[in-house]
Each structure stands twice: as structure tokens, then as C-alpha cells.
Write a structure and sequence with these properties.
The complex is a heterodimer of chains A (about 250) and B (about 650). Chain A is α+β, with helices and mostly antiparallel strands. Chain A is about 35% helix and about 10% strand. Chain A is built from 9 helices and 7 strands, in the order ββαβββββαααααααα. Helices cover about 35% and strands about 15% of the residues of chain B. Chain B contains 16 helices and 21 strands. In chain B, the strands form 6 sheets. A 5-stranded parallel beta sheet of chain B has the order 5-2-1-9-17. A 5-stranded antiparallel beta sheet of chain B has the order 11-15-14-12-13. A 4-stranded antiparallel beta sheet of chain B has the order 16-10-20-21. In chain B, a hairpin with a 5-residue loop joins strand 7 and strand 8. In chain B, helix 3 packs parallel to helix 6 and helix 5 crosses helix 11. The longest helix of chain B is centred in the middle third of the chain and has 27 residues. Chain B is globular. Classes of the chains: A alpha+beta (about 250), B alpha/beta (about 650). Chains A and B meet through helix 1, helix 2 and helix 3 of A and helix 3, helix 5, helix 6, helix 10 and helix 11 of B. Bound molecules: flavin-adenine dinucleotide (FAD), iron/sulfur cluster (SF4) and FE2/S2 (inorganic) cluster (FES).
């Protein structure tokens, strides 16, 4: 296949960036999108030019590091697919593909296609955990959990922290990411005890990081590679309301 | 000569750990905050250790080169984690898990360590449940179990096909809790490039900030390495792209013994390589072997689509050769058998580098819905990569480098030969022997991090003489200068070949000669070729941009590949010196008449521990003799 990649090049966080076009011939439809970027980089290096910085690690759709904006969609055209799981057979021969980093105020560009997603870590630090120390847990079967509750918790826990939801949202809202963690823990008895405190603290941190508010356009759900349901956002809003209205602290 | 005293407690195996816990010195609670501990790596092992040490009151600095601890390679583990709970009432026990793990490792692991692993495995599950890990449940609300390669009991706990992810998120969340409490200082995007030794003790590290490029030193009372495995020495592997050997190798150069580097695991169920562009191989979870049947056509070069090959023209070779374990035979056996049939030109798929993993029987037996519940996401992932639907046509699989049982040598306290340098998780050599059974790495990483190291490191801190040392000490300046010089040398590389292309070439060499089976001729040839490739790297590689004061992925890779180029030689040397076949190490010269591995317990029931003697000197092979008091050294048979 022949492909033209228009890639965002930006030297540093505080320098200006621009789109640069690169033509590639002989792309195998079986190769992945990231392998195409590898191919491009090998060619750039051979010419003595600086390769394009982009992040990837597991290349299996699970570590959440590889997100790119591909021709206007977070993680590209396939639903429920991370960038690393996108293959060239998805594209047309001769197609021009635009590749940009996530664009959201709290995610600063580090270089080219690499952004800083540490705000997500700080949101988890605010309360996205169960306060339990190692060493005293009772037998795992002491508290039975219905299969349904465990499955729902797992549905939410599947979030890979990629940030596509934020990047796709016109307000740069992190609601889907936060809602996923809130729901994961709230559906389990172990996590529900701190539920009210958690939802308040995580939302407060999300606001402090500069993420926008949710106006229910649900672009997030459409691009989420793990199919995290936007219903969790409604659930979180209910929990948040409950926590602010009825909790005395 | 390295001092390889494993410090195994005396007494019966069931009581060793109890006894040791009682006998170890304690750090007074009020004094814990006076100790600083550096933990490098925040995968399952590192995150669980850092969080637990912080819970105990130590000050912890946690480093990783990932942008967030949540992305460590542990996140990718699909299948599950073992424990001896015996919930399914099928006869499991701590002793049986211990026995299976020792036997699975082909009697090349230390009994006491493995027993302890089995003993704490149950607490690991309890801890994870308490953290909110959403393990699979039965309809009655209790934890569900499944069986995994190499085991005849159902002792594997799982969270869909995302067990590693959920376990890591549990440990990561505990780590984040301690970070917000100020007990842990997080240093993401920071790569450790050296260990600092003062008065013979590990007292700090040298790092490079991957965003700004600044090279810094950090002091502490003890250092923990939890930096994962080195399968990427083969270039193509199931490991994440950034997995590497640098931290362990630099520690080796500072005096830490490297144990059994030739023990590498080749996983039988990966998607075959499709072409030259390939950057990594994708694992299909081993749990698939519970319901999938492995076969190849009986006829050489049979190019018919699988559906057109009738039953009597198929060879279900694992079921034929290993009737009691069948498709669940351990990984080394399943992998080698796949290679054998492909070497006989029976391999399937466009490149002949695959065997079928067929779900047709299971689909008929329990239906697509049940199979979808069990493996839905794996099937989807497979289809995404290959464009084939496993509900309709069998998967194509082939073995790939996956896990490394070798690693830095540690004693029973998980301490390396450098006092104060502890090593946990895949980075150490300890519990798996010559082969690793499925679902045991997650168990080991978490056991080390939650329940073993936090005890033993306390003993070290309470008993070692530790002087006041900070980064102004001359050893820190010296290590810093070494790292700077090495970086500068890498940045001067202005040749024609990319770092990746040299890594790829090294990987090919290792895969063909030091992969699934090895022989003296191939190993000797490799030992000759590696220095040439190293020369090629230093003469003809290129690093762009040529500046270290910025985010520079090529520089990161170059440092790691330079270490792989030296480490590969150590691995090959170890394989050459081990003149027997055991577990993941198969020497063609040492096999039984029926092609099974021929172990030599008389001469090789030991750990080989390599000692660095200088860059231009041959490393020295030390041994730790293994003593088996609780299990008989039987020939491992899965027939
Ligand atoms: C695809 C796949 C599936 C698997 N499935 C299973 C399974 O089902 N069951 C099972 O038991 N095991 C499984 N395994 C094996 C298991 O996942 C790993 O062995 C285990 O997770 C390793 O954990 P770890 O904490 O030792 O290292 P890792 O998770 O690899 O973590 C290494 C950490 O060290 C950091 N690091 C490394 N070097 C440096 C450095 N120089 N400076 C700073 N930081 C550094 C990294 O950033 C990372 O945080 C699987 C492995 C793979 C590849
Ligand atoms: S909710 Fe979905 S899109 Fe958002 S971070 Fe999680 S996985 Fe990514
Ligand atoms: S590289 Fe890990 S999700 Fe894509």
C-alpha cells in the first residue's frame, strides 16, 4: 500500500508544532499502525533525520500508553480498538492519514505525539483506592459477591487510562475515566465503604487538574477502546449528589 | 568467588518461614521513618513492595521509566494467578502447589523458597480481594477458579482475560494511596542507569530523567530492583517493547551475581510472525488450552483449509504424546513439540510457522455463548490481528519468547550478592527453576512484594551497620561520571544503522541458536558472532537526535541494546556450560531416545551464578548446590 502520513511535529512542550507530510510506499496491510510509524522512523533515521516520538509499550491494547489522534478520531476509525491494535488493512491504498497527539489542556505535549497524562495518576491518588494495608485481609470467600456485581465492577475496571475520552471531549472532560474507577470500587463491598468520600475527592481533583465539565455529548464513550459505558457517568453523578447532599463531612 | 550462602533456615520445610520470621530482627516502628528505601520498578513486584514498605512506615522513593506506574509490563498478563486455596475441593494443598512448582521447574529451584511461595499464595489472593480486584465469581458469590497449563487441579484465579491488569491496578492504587499520604515519592519517566555501592553496600542509584535528560543520584539505606525480565534480548517476544535488562545488568557489573541467564521460557500459544515489519509477538492466553485442541495435518505440505482436513488426517500430537496432560502439557513441552512438527514441514499458515488451536469441539460441547464468556476478548484480539474469526476457523499459534527464569541471584531474604541490594519479581532468579508454570509469575511478584521483602528488608536494616551516606559521597560522583560518559559515548554514534536494526539482528541470532533448542556448535558460533555485532553497534549505529538534554527515545533504546549486546553473551555462555537439558533449556545433545529432555542431576543440580570480572575478562561461573530434602528428583514425565 501507499500511505501519506501527516504528523504533528513539536520539539518541546513550549515550542510551536506543525504538521509534516511523509509518503510511505510498500506498506503491508497486515502491519499495525504503530509498525507503520516504526517503518517511517527507520526511513527517517536512514536519511539522518530525527525520528517521530510516539509512545507504545504492550502493543496488545492493554497498557493504555499508545493513544493517538488519527484522522480526527481518538485511536482511529475502528470502534473499541486501541491505536496499537489498528492494522493497515483498515485504511485505503493511497490514503492520507493525519496523526496528532491528544489535545487537552491538562495533557501537555512532551514531544511530537507524546503527552503527559500524570493528571490521571493524581486523580487516583485523591481516592481511587481501597484503604487496606497488606497483611490483614480475611479469606477472599468471606464476603461473597454476586457474579453480577463482580462483572459490573470488572466492566468498569477495564479502563486502561489511555485518555482518549478526554481527548475526544470538546470540553476536555475526564468524567468517563473517573466514573469508571468510582463504579469499579463502589460495586464491590470492599470499596463501597469509602464510596462517598472517594467520589467527592476524585471529582474535586479532576476539577483542580483543569479538566472540563461533562455536557453529555458522549464522544468519550464512542472512542473508548475498552467500551466503558457512559452509564457509569450517570451513576457517578448520582453518587456524587448523594455524597454532597447526605454526607455530613 | 561470590559468597552464595542462601541463608535457608533450618528445620522442617513447613516451619522454615515461620521460624525465620520470628528470628529476624525487627525495626522499631518509630525508627522506620528514619530509613529511606529506593524501589526501582513499579510492576506487580515493585508496586506491591513500595506500597507495603510505605504502609510499614519507611520512606520510599519509587522509580519507573513508564509515564505512570500503571503501565508496567505486568499489566499485560492475561491468564491468571495461582494459589493453594483448594476452593474447588479437588485436592489442592500448599504442599501440592509447592510440589508442582518444583517439578514444573524441572528440579532446578530452591525448595525453601518455593515452599514459602506456595505458603503465602493464599494471602496474596485475600489481599487482592480486599483491594477490590474484581476476580471472576461463581453464581453463589464465591471466587471462581480454572486450570492452567501444567496443573491437574483448578487453582488459578482470574479476572476475565485481564488478570495482570487488575492485579497491577490493585497494587498501583495502594501505591497511589501511599503517594498521596507522602510516604512514597514517585519518580515516573526516570530510568535507573547504575547502582551506587558504598563500603560494599548498595546505597543508591543513578538515574536519567527521560523528559529533561538530567542525570541525577539518589541515596538510601537499601535498594530494591523490581525491573522485570529480559526476553526482549530475542527482539521479538511477548514482552512489552520497553522491557530490558539494563538495571539488572548494571548491577551485575557492580558485583551482583547473575543466576541461570540461559533459563528462558518460550510460550506455546502466540500468534505466528507475519512479516519483516513485525515489532513484537502477541500472546494468546494459555487458558485457551483448556478448551482448544492442538493439531497439524498428518500430511506434509497439506495446504487445504483446516475445515477440509478430515479428522483422521489430523495429528492431535499433544494428546497423542502426552495422554494424561494432553493439550495442558507444560509450556516447554508444548513449545518444543510445536517446533518439532514445524521442523518436519507439518506447520500450517502462510509461512508454515504455526499449528492449529481448534475450538470446534468445545463450541459443539458448550456452545458459543459459554466460550464467548470464557475467552471473548481473546478471540476478538486474535481476530483484530489476523482478520480470522476463531469461532469459525481454528487459531494459528506458534511459540515465542515470553518469560525469563534467570535473573539476579538472591538468597532466601531476596538479597543479591551485594548487601542492601534486594531483587524481586521477574528480575530475580528465585522460584521457577528451569521452567515456569503458568500463573506463577504474578503469584511470585506479589508474594515477594506484599509478604516477603517487607519482612526481610527490615531484618537487613536492623542488622546491617549503615553509616550516614548521602549523594555528596565520592562514590556517587564516580557513578554519575560513569553514566555521563556512557551516555556521551552513545550520543556520539553517527553511523548508518538504526539501533533497532542491530537489536533485530541480535534477536534473530539468539532465537535461532539460543532459543527453543541449543547445541554446542550453534552456541560457539553465537559467542563468536556477538562481539562482532557489538563492534558493528559501536562503529555503525546512529542515535538521533544527538542531544541528551531532551526527550530522546533513540538514546534510551541505544543504552538498552548496548546492554543486551553484552548480556546476550553471558546468556549464551551459560547455555553452553550447562551440558544437560532441563525445563526451558534444551540441548540437542542431551535428549532421551524418545526426544524428551535428559537432565543430569549428578552434575547440574545447581544454580549457575555468573560473576563479572571486568569488561575484557571472562566471567566466572560459581555454583549454588541445590539440596532436595522434601521431594525426590524424579524424571519429569507428563505422559
Ligand atoms: C503477555 C504476557 C502474559 C502473561 N500472563 C501471565 C499470567 O497469566 N500469569 C502469570 O503468572 N504471569 C504472566 N506473565 C508474566 C508476568 O506478567 C510477569 O512475569 C510479571 O508481571 C513481571 O512483573 P515484575 O513486577 O517483575 O516486572 P514488570 O511488570 O516488567 O515491571 C518492571 C518495572 O520496572 C521498571 N523498570 C525496568 N527497568 C527500569 C530501569 N532501568 N529504571 C527504572 N525503571 C525500570 C518498569 O518501568 C516497570 O515499572 C505474562 C507475561 C506476558 C508478557
Ligand atoms: S474510560 Fe476509556 S477512553 Fe477513557 S481512559 Fe479509560 S479506557 Fe481510555
Ligand atoms: S501500546 Fe499498550 S495499549 Fe497500545
Amino acid at each position: 500500500m501507499k500511505i501519506t502520513l501527516k504528523i504533528w511535529r513539536q520539539k518541546k512542550a513550549d515550542t510551536k508544532g506543525k504538521l509534516v507530510a511523509y509518503d510511505l510506499n510498500n506498506i503491508d496491510p497486515k502491519q499495525s499502525f504503530l509498525e507503520t510509524l516504526d517503518t517511517l522512523n527507520q526511513q527517517l533515521i536512514a536519511k539522518g533525520e530525527e525520528p517521530v516520538a510516539f509512545e507504545s509499550d504492550c502493543r496488545e491494547g492493554i497498557c493504555g500508553v499508545c493513544g493517538l489522534y488519527i484522522s480526527g478520531t481518538a485511536h482511529g476509525p475502528l470502534r473499541e480498538t486501541t491505536t496499537c491494535q489498528l492494522h493497515m488493512r483498515t485504511f485505503k491504498d493511497g490514503e492520507t492519514i493525519t496523526v496528532e497527539p491528544w489535545r487537552a489542556k491538562p495533557f501537555k505535549v512532551i514531544k511530537d505525539l507524546v503527552v503527559d497524562r500524570s493528571p490521571f495518576d493524581r486523580i487516583i491518588q485523591a481516592g481511587g483506592f481501597v484503604s487496606v494495608n497488606a497483611g490483614n485481609a480475611p479469606d477472599g470467600n468471606i464476603v461473597p459477591i454476586s457474579k453480577k456485581a463482580a462483572d459490573t465492577a470488572m466492566d468498569a475496571a477495564a479502563c486502561i487510562g489511555c485518555g482518549a475520552c478526554v481527548a475526544a471531549c470538546k470540553n476536555g472532560s475526564a468524567m468517563l475515566f473517573v466514573a469508571a474507577k468510582v463504579a469499579h470500587l463502589a460495586h464491590l463491598p470492599q470499596g463501597s465503604i469509602e464510596g462517598q468520600k472517594r467520589v467527592r475527592a476524585m471529582i474535586a481533583q479532576m476539577d483542580a487538574e483543569g479538566f472540563g465539565s461533562c455536557t453529555n455529548t458522549y464522544e468519550c464513550g464512542a472512542v473508548c477502546p475498552k467500551g466503558i459505558s457512559v452509564d457509569f457517568i450517570a451513576e457517578m453523578n448520582r453518587r456524587w449528589l448523594g455524597a454532597t447532599l447526605f454526607d455530613s463531612k | 568467588m561470590l559468597n552464595l550462602d542462601a541463608k535457608i533456615p533450618s528445620g522442617p520445610i513447613e516451619l522454615k518461614w515461620q521460624k525465620h520470621k520470628f528470628e529476624m530482627k525487627l525495626v522499631n516502628p518509630a525508627n522506620k521513618r528514619k530509613f529511606n528505601i529506593i524501589v526501582v520498578g513499579t510492576g506487580l513486584a515493585g508496586a506491591s513492595a513500595a506500597a507495603t514498605l510505605a504502609e510499614l512506615g519507611y520512606n520510599v522513593d519509587a522509580f519507573c521509566f513508564h509515564d505512570s506506574p500503571r503501565r508496567a509490563h505486568s499489566i499485560a498478563a492475561q491468564g491468571g494467578i495461582n494459589a493453594a486455596k483448594n476452593y474447588p475441593n479437588d485436592g489442592d494443598s500448599i504442599f501440592r502447589l509447592f510440589y508442582d512448582t518444583i517439578k514444573g521447574g524441572d528440579f532446578r529451584a530452591r525448595e525453601a523458597n518455593v515452599y514459602r511461595l506456595a505458603e503465602v499464595s493464599n494471602a496474596v489472593i485475600d489481599q487482592c480481594v480486599a483491594q477490590g480486584v474484581p476476580f471472576a465469581r461463581e453464581y453463589g458469590g464465591y471466587l471462581d477458579n480454572r486450570s492452567f497449563g501444567g496443573a491437574q487441579v483448578s487453582r488459578t484465579f482470574y479476572a476475565r482475560g485481564q488478570t495482570g491488569q487488575q492485579l497491577l491496578l490493585g497494587a498501583y492504587q495502594s501505591l497511589m494511596r501511599q503517594a498521596s499520604a507522602g510516604q512514597v515519592k514517585l519518580h515516573p519517566r526516570t530510568e535507573m542507569l547504575d547502582v551506587v555501592i558504598v563500603n560494599g553496600q548498595a546505597r543508591g542509584i543513578v538515574t536519567r530523567n527521560l523528559v529533561t535528560g538530567s542525570i541525577e543520584t539518589w541515596a538510601a539505606h537499601a535498594v530494591v530492583l523490581a525491573t522485570g525480565g529480559y526476553s526482549n534480548v530475542f527482539y521479538l517476544s511477548t514482552n512489552a517493547k520497553t522491557c530490558n535488562v539494563t538495571a539488572a545488568f548494571r548491577a551485575y557489573k557492580r558485583g551482583a551475581g547473575f543466576a541461570n541467564p540461559c533459563y528462558t521460557q518460550i510460550h506455546p500459544t502466540c500468534i505466528p510472525q507475519t512479516g519483516e515489519h513485525q515489532s513484537k509477538l502477541t500472546l494468546m492466553s494459555e487458558s485457551l488450552r483448556n478448551d482448544g485442541r492442538v493439531w497439524v495435518p498428518k500430511q506434509k505440505g497439506d495446504k487445504r483449509p483446516p475445515a477440509q482436513i478430515p479428522e483422521n488426517e489430523r495429528d492431535y500430537y499433544l494428546e497423542r504424546k502426552y495422554p494424561s496432560f494432553g493439550n495442558l502439557a507444560p509450556r516447554d513441552i508444548a513449545s518444543r513439540s510445536a517446533k518439532e512438527v514445524c521442523d518436519q514441514n507439518l506447520g500450517i499458515g502462510p509461512n508454515g510457522n504455526g499449528v492449529y488451536l481448534d475450538f470446534a469441539d468445545a463450541l459443539n460441547r458448550v456452545g458459543a455463548k459459554v466460550i464467548g464468556e470464557r475467552y471473548g476478548n481473546l478471540f476478538e484480539m486474535y481476530e483484530r490481528i489476523t482478520a480470522d474469526d476463531p469461532y469459525k476457523t481454528p487459531m494459528r499459534i506458534f511459540p515465542a519468547p515470553h518469560y525469563t527464569m534467570g535473573g539476579l541471584w538472591v538468597d532466601y531474604n531476596l538479597m543479591s550478592t551485594i548487601p542492601g541490594l534486594h531483587v524481586i519479581g521477574e528480575a530475580n532468579f528465585s522460584d521457577h527453576g528451569a521452567n515456569r508454570l503458568g500463573a506463577s509469575a504474578l503469584m511470585q511478584g506479589l508474594a515477594d512484594g506484599y509478604f516477603i521483602l517487607p519482612y526481610t528488608i527490615g531484618h537487613y536494616l536492623a542488622s546491617a551497620q549503615l553509616s550516614d551516606v548521602d549523594t555528596s559521597h565520592s562514590e556517587f560522583a564516580a557513578a554519575l561520571a560513569d553514566v555521563q560518559a556512557r551516555n556521551a559515548k552513545l550520543l556520539r554514534l553517527k553511523g548508518k544503522r538504526s539501533v533497532d536494526s542491530i537489536h533485530r539482528e541480535l534477536g534473530q541470532l539468539m532465537w535461532h541458536n539460543v532459543g527453543m533448542s541449543r547445541n554446542a556448535a550453534g552456541l560457539l558460533q553465537t559467542l563468536q558472532r556477538i562481539p562482532e555485532l557489538r563492534e558493528e553497534f559501536w562503529q555503525n549505529a546512529i542515535v538521533l537526535p544527538a542531544s541528551g538534554e531532551e526527550f530522546n527515545q533513540e538514546l534510551e533504546k541505544a543504552g538498552r541494546v548496548a546492554d543486551f549486546l553484552e548480556f546476550a553473551e553471558l546468556l549464551t555462555r551459560d547455555a553452553l556450560e550447562r551440558r544437560e537439558s532441563c525445563g526451558g533449556h534444551f540441548r540437542n545433545e542431551y535428549q532421551q531416545e524418545d526426544g524428551e529432555a535428559k537432565r543430569d542431576d549428578k552434575n547440574y543440580a545447581h544454580v549457575a551464578v555468573w560473576e563479572h570480572k571486568g569488561d575484557d575478562k571472562t566471567p566466572e561461573r560459581n555454583i549454588e548446590q541445590l539440596k532436595y530434602e522434601n521431594v525426590a528428583l524424579v524424571t519429569r514425565s507428563y505422559k
